[in-house]
Amino acid sequence: MNSELKPLSAIGEFDLIQRYFHNLTAQQGVELGIGDDAAVVSFEANSQSRLVVATDSLVADIHFPLCSAAYDIARRSLCVNLSDLAAMGAIPRWFTLALNLPQHLAVDEWLAGFSRGLGEIANDHNCALIGGDVSRGNLALTITIIGQVPADEMLTRGGAKPGDHLYVTGTLGDGAAALWLMSAESNDPMDLRLREHFYAPIPRIKEGIVLRDLATACIDISDGLLSDLAHICLKSSVGAEINLSRLPVHSYLKTNFANFFLEWALSGGDDYELCFTVPSHRVTEIDRLIRQGQIDATPIGKITAGDDIALVSESGRTLNDKHFGKYRGYTHFA
Ligand code: ADP
Ligand code: MG
After folding, report:
1. Which residues contact 62 (CB under 8 A, 6 or more apart)?
2. Buried (b) or exposed (e) across 43-72, using 16+ Cβ within 10 A?
3. I want to staple 32 with a disulfide (CB 3.0 to 4.6 A). Which of 37, 40, 241, 251 is the partner?
4. What distance in Å separates the CA atoms of residue 161 and residue 317, rounded to the nearest whole number?
């Protein structure tokens, strides 16, 4: 490596994309390029469908512990990719897999487990592996997933308006809790629900489809609620207010991690839940769907006219996230 080169730590992941890749996206047929959970392209004139394409890489020791079973690595890889399609309101169709495999894992035992995990998730979500690549190297995998959505019905990060109500699906903080329990620092036994959540986070495809008609903006929470909500705010030119007491956190976390669960729910990441906004005149509809069990979601706040995210505590005290460094989400390099 040339020691004269400027290290990547000087530039954040999102600046890097903006600076070096964003300008390469302008091609005909691209309805939505770089900057959302997935790209949306139109492949033939007058088609009622759009293709939705997303890629996520998982690298050993960064995105999953080195000791993870092949079956679990495969499930997690496909689930996190499916989650980006869910955030677009898309249904999955096909995927490709690029696999870097160290020599010692190129054995039947590892590959059979990997294949079984991939097959289970693919089967659950009706999508087919259509190609890929295999190479020797440090363990890492990249999945490119392709789905479809009816034209004009895709969900994006860009449509939130002041006054919209803010929701999240499922519970928050579970991904961070699982990571903590897997870490060398923890002496606590692994909780099975959390383990399953980490290795096979349920992609909210069903919810995304219901939300096509209801949500003004949507994102999946991979880096932490605050960090991912900030993407909605930036793309929609709005701010947001989160009621801390409303954040849906599983009782196991509240009981066992009283000092950590709030931080994990706000910025832990790895939850792969959807964060979405609904206009106030349609709140009764979404609340009815929640009551009927058609969508598992919780209202957590509102979209505001500002450009920052405020956290409102139970006592009504407002904290501004700009002054609340520890509640930042995950970012590579920065
Ligand atoms: P997500 O967390 O939803 O997977 P990312 O934060 O990884 O999204 O990426 C944000 C946006 O930047 C996405 O639209 C993604 O497609 C795009 N992006 C990320 N890396 C690259 C790259 N190397 N080249 C082009 N676009 C990229
Ligand atoms: Mg995403």
Report:
1. none
2. eeeeeeebbbbbebbbebeebbeeebebbb
3. 40
4. 24
For the record, the structure tokens of 112 come out as 């059979």
For residue 243, is it left (φ>0), alpha (ψ between -120 and 50) or beta? Answer: beta
Query: Residue 24 — very low, low, confident or very high, per pLDDT cuts 50/70/90?
Result: confident
Q: pTM of the full predicted structure?
A: 0.92
Which ligand 1 atom sits nearest the alpha carbon of residue 24? 25
Evaluate: CB of 134 within 6 angstroms of ligand 1. Answer: no
Which ligand 1 atom lies nearest to the CA of residue 223?
2
Please name the residue ranges forming H helices in 125-204. Answer: 174-182, 192-199
DSSP letter, residue 173: S
Which tokens is 38 given?
């997935």
Q: How far apart are CA 113 and CA 139, in angstroms?
A: 15
Residue 227 in contact with ligand 1 by CB distance below 6 A: no
Domain 8-150, CATH 3.40.109.10 — does that match? no
Torsion of Cα atoms, 214 then 263 then 174 then 201, to 10°: 50
**pLDDT tens-digit profile of 145-177?**
999 999 999 999 999 999 999 999 999 999 999
What are residue 321's phi and psi, to 5 degrees?
-65, -20
Q: What residue spans define the domains of the chain?
A: 8-150, 165-327
How far apart (Å, rounded) are the C-alpha atoms in residues 40 and 17?
18
Digit-coded pLDDT (tens) for 186-205: 888 889 999 999 999 999 99
The whole-angstrom separation of Cα 305 and Cα 318 is: 16
Long-range contacts, stretch 185-188, CB < 8 angstroms, 24+ apart: 188/256
Half-sphere exposure of 84 (CA within 13 A, CB side): 25
